[in-house]
Design a protein that fits this description.
Elements lengths: L4 E5 L3 H14 L3 E6 L2 H11 L3 E4 L8 H11 L4 E6 L4 H10 L3 E4 L4 H12 L4 E2 L1 H15 L14 H11 L4 H8 L3 H15 L4 H10 L7
Parallel strand pairs: 1-2, 1-3, 3-4, 4-5, 5-6
Length: 219
């Protein structure tokens, strides 16, 4: 059976090169490309079509969350595995909502990283040992409505969330432009971004998703 083909993205060259050498030395993964930022990760994923993209979240230019969204949209066969120092609930949730299939902390050892890469390449969703219990607990609390102030659609920008709120209230693009003091073209771009991130085909589906999440009630 062939080993997973992997792209690595991290803005720290020492960590990135060390991880590449470690993975190559095991013979259990083939690193086909490395990048120093999110834009580079997206470009490599689209060009090389790897099985797994291992990326950090905090990188210059395009961050890991946005890069994950782009990779999932443009190369859906590539599973994204986040390898980050951040372990707070909001960051982990944002990564998973963006489409990441796995999340490890940078303290993970060689065996844990290899197991995660193999799992993600096989279509599984995996969390590191340090996160699994906390993430399961967080999603259980979220499902029970016990997470105060939880923001729906955390992968939307603040402007996109404003636009979605007005879409859910039944406003037209022209009305949204007037309400937010934006150019019509800017509103159209924001609406297109919202549809893409919510993975809906049209305004009606967006309204349903938004109202299910409690948006649009203010009219």
């Amino acid at each position: 059976m062939s080993v997973p083909r992997v792209v690595l993205a991290d803005d720290h060259p020492v960590y990135r090169d060390g991880l590449r050498m470690m993975l190559d030395s095991t013979g259990q993964a083939e690193v086909v490309g490395t990048a120093a930022d999110g834009q580079g990760a997206v470009e490599l994923a689209l060009r090389l079509r790897p099985d797994v993209v291992v990326l950090d979240l905090q990188m210059p230019g395009m961050d890991g969350i946005r890069a994950t969204e782009r990779i999932v949209a443009g190369a859906p066969e590539a599973g994204v595995l986040v390898l980050s120092m951040h372990e707070d609930d909001d960051t982990v949730l944002a990564a998973m909502v963006a489409g990441a299939r796995g999340y490890l902390l940078k303290g993970a050892d060689q065996g844990e990283i290899l197991r995660a890469i193999t799992a993600v390449a096989g279509g599984e969703v995996i969390f590191g040992q340090a996160l699994a219990a906390r993430v399961s607990g967080f999603f259980a609390r979220l499902a029970r409505g016990e997470v105060p102030g939880a923001t729906p659609f955390p992968h939307l920008t603040a402007r996109e969330r404003e636009v979605l709120e007005l879409i859910a209230a039944g406003r037209s693009n022209g009305e949204i432009a007037g309400r937010l003091h934006l150019a019509p073209k800017t509103v159209r771009n924001n609406v297109s971004n919202v549809f893409a991130k919510l993975q809906v085909a049209d305004r009606a589906q967006a309204i349903v998703r938004a109202r299910e999440a409690g948006l649009g009630r203010g009219g």
